[in-house]
Amino acid sequence: NHKPGLVEHTVGWPLDKNTYGGSFIYHLKVEEGESPLVAAGFVVGLDYSNPYLSPFREFQKFKTHPYIRPMFEGGSRIAYGARALVEGGWQCLPVPVFPGGVLAGDSAGFLNVPRIKGTHNAMKSGMLAAEAAMDLIISGEATHEKGVVPTQYEEKLKESYVYKELKQVRNCRPSFHTSLGLYGGVAYSAFSTLMRGKEPWTLSHGGADHARLKPAKECQPIEYPKPDGVITFDLLSSVALTGTNHEADQPAHLTLKDDTVPVKQNLGVYDGPEARFCPAGVYEFVPMESGDGQRLQINAQNCIHCKTCDIKDPSQNINWVVPEGGGGPAYNGM
Ligand SMILES: Cc1cc2nc3c(=O)[nH]c(=O)nc-3n(C[C@H](O)[C@H](O)[C@H](O)COP(=O)(O)OP(=O)(O)OC[C@H]3O[C@@H](n4cnc5c(N)ncnc54)[C@H](O)[C@@H]3O)c2cc1C
Ligand code: SF4
Questions:
Q1: How many angstroms does the Cα of residue 311 sit away from the middle of ligand 2?
Q2: Which of 35, 133, 236, 248 is deepest in the core (most CB within 10 A)?
Q3: Closest residue (by CA) to atom 52 of ligand 1?
Q4: 309 falls in which pLDDT band (50, 70, 90)?
Q5: Is-contact 115 7, C-beta < 8 A?
Q6: Where do the 4Fe-4S ferredoxin-type domain residues begin and end (predicted)?
Q7: Are 227 and 287 in contact (CB under 8 A)?
Q8: Cα torsion for 243, 316, 218, 65, to the nearest 10°?
């Protein structure tokens, strides 16, 4: 089933029509005699509303589709990883300069969402940042004493294809937010692409992703297949493949602003979505030692730095800070 060079994308299934997402499957070219290699993944828009959704388990379910399953049969799972994509686009671009520094690439949100491409914009913004720094050095404005705000960088970005391209596709992602969901989004995106983004309006994302989660009582639990260890896998054996590691005695990089919120708010209202949206099983609701209710256990050493909890925690109570250098996933070949 391996066709070197083949790239396949799907939208929708197993997601419902109101949840943005789809898959990518890359059949990698390998040297003669080497085992065939496929890189596959599943994107789930973090603006989903059902707290029972698990992005990891959606991916496992996706692999059971009759068209997809044969591709993986007889193969071995050799790697696993996860990260958040920056999907805000043009409407959400931050001021990309500050004293002594700039934001470039994905950290500034330069991903072209409909194309799922950001490498070119990351490279271009890095080049423009270097040009702006050089301008400051040549003009003598850069000093050792104080951080200069490299405003030239923002001006260069506005003139570059980075901003032009992001503006052109600005309405595609928010167009998935109507009651027509996936169908409305695909139809509008086709129209907007034909228009080259020249519509005289800009659609709004309509709010933060964490605010879109609905209370559990308004939603249906989602059925996922039990892992068979062949095509579908459990979370913890997948996380083991990330090689993630953190020094045991470092300060916690995942803390809670208020320890009572996870049980009272997240578990009480949303049925503990952090136990499902984290792709590394970091958050677990476990029984209290007293036998009276549950508490949230944070397995911070498993964290693979995807930043989903920072974005999707409905109470915005999780404080993710950068851990000590060297910690985190040790991806190989990803
Ligand atoms: C699944 C997936 C598929 C994609 N497919 C494509 C595609 O086909 N084509 C395309 O053009 N784009 C694609 N993209 C987007 C592309 O990967 C990004 O836009 C691009 O990598 C952004 O580059 P960057 O340098 O800004 O950030 P990154 O590539 O994310 O680099 C940031 C680096 O900083 C490191 N880092 C983070 N924190 C610290 C710290 N505290 N100290 C030191 N280092 C740190 C990270 O380990 C990482 O190496 C894809 C993204 C994903 C997730
Ligand atoms: S704890 Fe947060 S950042 Fe770490 S893997 Fe889980 S969701 Fe991602």
A1: 10
A2: 133
A3: 85
A4: very high
A5: no
A6: 294-323
A7: no
A8: -20
Best residue for ligand 1 mutational test, from 7, 42, 112, 117 (most atoms within 8 Å of Cβ): 117
Query: Contact 96/103 with Cβ under 8 angstroms?
Result: yes
- Counting atoms of ligand 1 from 1, which one is nearest the CA of 108? 26
Strand 7-11, strand 21-28: pairing: antiparallel
Give the fold, CATH level 3, of 89-209: FAD/NAD(P)-binding domain (3.50.50)
Query: Is residue 253 within 8 Å of 303, Cβ to Cβ?
Result: yes
Q: Which residues contact 252 (CB under 8 A, 6 or more apart)?
A: 298, 300
Nearest atom (ligand 2) to Cα of 307: 3
On whether ipTM exceeds 0.95, the answer is yes
Which ligand 1 atom sits closest to the C-alpha of 119? 11
Band of pLDDT at residue 325, cut at 50, 70 and 90? confident
Q: How far is the CA of 323 from the centre of ligand 1 (A)?
A: 18
Question: What does the pLDDT look like over 63-111, one tens digit per residue?
Answer: 999 999 999 999 999 999 999 999 999 999 999 999 999 999 999 999 9
